[in-house]
Amino acid sequence: MDIELTDTGVAQAHRAARLLAALKPDAIIASDLKRVAATAAELSAVTGLSVTHDAGLRETYAGAWQGLTHEEILESFGEQYAAWKRGEPVRRGGGELETEVADRAAPVVLEGADKLPDGGTLVVVSHGGTIRTTIGRLLGLEPRTWEALGGLSNCCWSVLGEGARGWRLLEHNAGSLPEPVLGDDD
């Protein structure tokens, strides 16, 4: 649904923008829905970068589930909800499949990444479900396993990088700047 950020959301977006600006992004792409556009505008204000809005980064359309509480969904769509949680392809409330969300969002991210200079950083501002499905697609995970990535807290982020074998998830649900991971081979 296309709703405005609350005062808490504005404060969260402002904090996240200050942190993400330290990554020196080269480009920002975002969903065109109000709350995400406002979040991206905070980063734009700090970095001076313009934001490219794309409807392909919108949240999953959940049909009849839209606007319902968790309890209301369980009451009216309990079996459908249970099937979705088991990883079955479900059109929640008659809406989009998770694979359809990834089909529209992942190409937007890949196109944005392709336009970056070598070693560049793209910030994608979107919605939790869209981010999770897009990460799953970029990592080559089976759609039924995407839920294992877990959700994102408001104004937190994931960091992906390209390696020799494709995309890699470096951080997930982060709320602070990424730090190098030291392993046995470092």
UniProtKB/TrEMBL annotation:
CDD domains per record: HP_PGM_like
Gene Ontology cellular component list: cytoplasm
GO terms for MF: phosphatase activity
Pfam families: His_Phos_1 (PF00300)
Residues bound to substrate: 35
Matching PANTHER family: BROAD-SPECIFICITY PHOSPHATASE YOR283W-RELATED (PTHR48100), GLUCOSYL-3-PHOSPHOGLYCERATE PHOSPHATASE (PTHR48100:SF62)
Name of the featured protein: Phosphoglycerate mutase
